[in-house]
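quick one, three chains, predict together pls
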Amino acid sequence: MSPNFLLLQAFTGFALGAIYVLLAVGLALVFGLLTVINFAHGAMFAVGAYIGIFVFGLTGNFWISLVIVPLAVGGIGLVVERVLVRPLYGRGIDYPLLLTFGLSYVLLDLIRILWGKQGLPFDAPDALSGAVDIGIGYFPLYRLFLIALTAALLVGLWLFIDKTSYGLVIRAGARDPEIVRVLGIDIARVWLMVFGIGTGLAGLAGMLAAPLQGVFPEMGTPALMVAFVITVIGGMGSLVGAVVAGLLVGLAESFTAIFAPQFSQLSMYVIMVLVLLLRPQGLFGRAGLLG
Amino acid sequence: MTGEVILAAEHVGKRFGRFVALNDVSIGFRRGRLTSVIGPNGAGKTTFFNIVSGALAPSEGRIRFDGNDITGLAQHHFARLGIAKSFQITNVFPWLTVLENVRVAVQALHARFDIWRPRARHRDLTERAAHLLDLVGLHGQRERQAANLAHGEQRSLEIAMALACEPKLLLLDEPTAGMSPEETKSMVALILRLAAKRTVVLVEHKMKLVMGISDHIVVLHHGELLAQGSPDEIRANPEVRLVYLGQAAA
Amino acid sequence: MTAGHLVLPGTRGRRLVDAIARHRVAAAVAGLLVLPWVMPYQALAVNVLVYGLYAVGFNLLYGYTGLLSFGHAAFFGAGAYGCGIAISRFGVPWPPALIIGTAFAGALGAVIGGLAIRTRGIYFAMVTLALAQCVYAIFYQWVSLTGGENGLRGVNAGRLLLFGWQLDLIDPTTKYYVVLVFVALALWLVSRVLDSPFGAVLEAVRENETRARACGYDVRATKFLSFVLSALVCGLAGSLMAIHLSVVPIDTLNYTTSGLVVMMTLLGGMGTFFGPFIGAGFFVVVEDVTTLYTDHWQLVVGTIFMVFVLFFPRGIWGVILQWLRP
């Protein structure tokens, strides 16, 4: 096996990891600020893919879909936070989890009602099909695009958190209304917005994953598992942890796929068990949201 | 044997990252006495309390109890050894009844892993719990849920729970915090009654309160031992006066 | 919730509830004895029994100890596969197979529980879910032993000669009452544990871990023991399910089965003795009725569940208790 082949496989892992990172960052962001685990995060991933198909069917333009999907799914997230999750704040940490679990059932069936039970194909746009020579061999252009887009989004997110006053609240992980009032910010609106951003990222990840794996109603379940496992590996609520663990899981999956394909599904669980044994708080747990 | 050291902190230090909360504190608490640990806010009282009650492990130094080194032991062992504590922030089982709160605490000593015989048949546990509730003046409240008690009553309940493990050493962290003058008075009376038969360590920041009731006083300041002695010695100590007056002026 | 304008139930109602609470195992068994005659058909009644027991096991951990597991399908499934494999692959008669299934679930509970209690709070739910999904993935791929995607077939309990008495599990009525014997036994055991001093420790840990530790309780050991007990009860339920269905579908291990027990327990009333069975009964009937009219029972069930989380978190039995004993 040549070094170039392994390197290419690593790139494949990064592309897969990029989607995982988007998923997990959304989850971590919401948890970091609201201490809410969104069990419907996987369902939002699926909703994103279906809205992508819908918008693409209307416009025939991948790029328009790419803009509309995160906005639309984020919008659904806003409604969910405002109407369903907000009444549960202060009632114990389990309740939002339980509620969003129920919501995931509802969303799954709504998808089946609107788009049917059968899977649908979703192709990468022509501009991104084919492969390019990246020095070590040919690599699918769409996967390269995934890596680049995720990197760009992470930089954008980092700027938002580091440079804006909303970001300041997020960084402080502020649960203290006093501090927030001093900053002149309505904390309820920050929570609302963060929930929207989190679900929007899930939706975007779903649409981006669609050309790789197709679109089917149950696609949210494995996505949710991956997002949970990454969160446990990276450390609850840590964005850096989500990024590192997401790439790690992507790499592990892509390498086990060539050496021991029957274990590729299990690889992330093995990493998780190791982390639980050696560092139960996660790789980046307790180091703060950006630490 | 009254007078010998029951709990000793030897060169105890605690750091949180770069912040030094306690530095080289050595104190011996003597059997049968009521010792108060005082100091202005931020003196390291609560950190010290958490270390001698087993909630935190010290960064340096040792803790000895009855001559045995107990540094770094898991917290539940502290209770079994006979070191009981009440918390600064009220800490009860909110949705259990008052009697059940104390009964659970009593049973930790006697029937910890009885998984089979019904609780109702452990008469002795219930009787002991009822007795402790009498002692702290909560006899009439047995069947209420702990969450529904008044603040002062919850603090008394906590003390009954601390007494449940028949402690050789009772640690109380600001037991009168947030209490009305009326409640404070009856709490002080209770502490005095308890101290008549037990070794008590009281952590407090109200200097006036401890002066009248303590046998021995330890003063912490900026994480270090500033002074110790009888109430009169402490009252006369110029350094202590400076610290407390300085605080009062600020 | 104020009930000021409602007609307050008399002391008679309260006394009745107290009497039922005192003889809760007998009351539960009495209710279950007549259940087959009020259900639309008997297979449904067996489902209530088995799922009810599954929820009882789960409730031990969530309702009484305060640990929300989203991975209990692993124990229900381990019981089902353990019992099913013993019968179909090794020809073990069903009574020892039940023990094998239950023990297997308990052992798996020790492994998963041992890992999961290293984490706290909401983390615990995610870790149990992920570990259970890992078990699912292993069973899915181990086709030679488990039948993989197609499930385990040929779990035929058949007849058993017991003290000269012929037990024919093909007959639905016989099957129901045989299963009920095991469920009643398990209920009695669980009730003893809840009544024991250890039961009080479980509640103490749920209420306030810090305080329980200060009282001298080893919180981790308590959680671990509670987890394993819970896994054993769920494993027995799974074993009974294998005998009831004669097959073990792979979805027995899937996360929807974990979610199912969370829903049933919350709908019925978590932390109450009867809640799990009431929740199981409610769920089984709602699912059965909705599937008559629509494919989309998940939409209906999910919506009902959300309404309960938002407005009736004490569940059906919890609300009834609150009304009778304000």
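Chain A touches chain C through 41 residues (CB under 8 Å).
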